[in-house]
Design goal:
Blueprint (H helix, E strand, L loop, with lengths): L2 H6 L1 H14 L9 H9 L9 H13 L6 H18 L8 H13 L8
Length: about 120
């Protein structure tokens, strides 16, 4: 989804998407833990805002190491996205719609039958 933007203007993509996420300030009206910690402790929490990205990548790497069926893939994506949102610098109610949609898809998708 992001490839066309990165291909069209790699420097602009780096500046406007990647770098902006690293230097933007906390949104104190956010529903995530990093801004809450920043309110309590102060700006020293800034490096921990990237914990969500690492945690989300870890969830994906751990859960998708074998060939998952559709429900497991959807549930894994929901768990990874939730990990990112919990630790992100900003997280609002509408960000969680993707997570709830993925969980709905996981519950509605037929599971692969195990051969005994």
């Amino acid at each position: 989804m992001l490839a066309p933007f990165a291909i069209g203007d790699p420097a602009g993509f780096w500046r406007s998407v990647v770098r902006f996420q690293l230097v933007q300030p906390f949104r104190f009206d956010s529903l995530s833990l990093a801004p809450f910690a920043a309110r309590l402790i102060g700006p020293a929490v800034q490096p921990f805002a990237l914990v969500g990205l690492a945690l989300g990548a870890g969830v994906l790497a751990f859960s998708l190491r074998r060939n998952p069926d559709l429900p497991l893939a959807c549930a894994t994506a929901a768990a990874a996205w939730a990990a990112v949102l919990i630790w992100n610098k900003q997280s609002f109610c509408n960000y969680w719609w993707l997570c709830s949609g993925l969980l709905a898809a996981a519950s509605a998708a037929p599971a692969a039958r195990e051969t005994g």
